[in-house]
């Protein structure tokens, strides 16, 4: 974990400094374009993280992998935060560009649905006393919500929205100058590393917590079997 923390912060901090201090302002949007260096990586992570959540759900439901449920449980709060940051920065960016904080176009609405799916999964997996039952219900919800990912991705192509088409992931040359594309990709890499590090840290802490609980339960059972031990009422 120290190596992962060092790597993620070592990439993210210079990337953010590059984006906020050294990259040029946009000729139309001015300095507000710098919101892009947080908004776009958060949007990528919201979708990529949910794809990871769906994969963990498949591993849990089909192959009963013990770490899959745990990984999905710890992933959903971080994914919800990333999606919330995507919505918040998008709103801040949209106000000076579009003249409104929010518009119910296809991209915004589908990302809002994605946020509710993240929050719903986080709540559902913690709503049952039986953790296995909660994990199963959360996995089903995660797999049902996968149908929303293509809507988020292709909404700007399928419907008339305020958002522009893809500027980076295109078969032709990216519609962005290298002076902006470089810091954007650096920020995306740094935020992705931080996202993965946070998920691994939460999973590691959850595994250790379960080991402690199992050890305490084993000790309690041994104490109950010990001869002459007074059992409390």
From TrEMBL:
Gene Ontology MF terms in the entry: heme binding; heme transmembrane transporter activity
Keywords: Cell inner membrane, Cell membrane, Cytochrome c-type biogenesis, Membrane, Transmembrane, Transmembrane helix, Transport
Main localization of the protein described in the UniProt heading: membrane
Record carries keyword Cytoplasm: no
Highest rank taxon of the organism: Bacteria
Regions that span the bilayer: 43-63, 75-94, 106-125, 137-156, 176-201
Limits of the Cytochrome c assembly protein domain: 16-163
Protein name as annotated: Heme exporter protein C
Source lineage: Bacteria, Pseudomonadati, Pseudomonadota, Alphaproteobacteria, Acetobacterales
Gene (name only): ccmC
